[in-house]
Design a protein that fits this description.
Oligomer: single chain
Structural class: mainly alpha
Largest sheet: none
Number of strands: 0
Distance between the termini: 47 Å
Strand content: under 5%
Radius of gyration: 20 Å
Number of helices: 2
Low-confidence stretches: none
Shape: elongated
Mean pLDDT: 85
Length: 57
């Protein structure tokens, strides 16, 4: 078990941009969901679950 395993990190500018874009979109979705939960109450969670189930079919 004396094998030397090393990890290398190689991120191009494009990778960093895609990570930043994903974080921005995720934050927007999270804040939008929070606002709709505040306005509609916990029932919106049930609607999200049903919609997700129907969409996955």
């Amino acid at each position: 078990m004396s094998e030397n395993h090393s990890l290398e990190r190689h991120l191009s500018g494009r990778h960093v941009n895609m990570i930043a874009l994903g974080g921005t979109i995720g934050t927007g979705l999270f804040l939008g969901a929070g606002e709709s939960i505040q306005k509609a109450g916990p029932t919106i969670l049930l609607i999200y679950i049903v919609t997700g189930f129907l969409y996955s079919q």
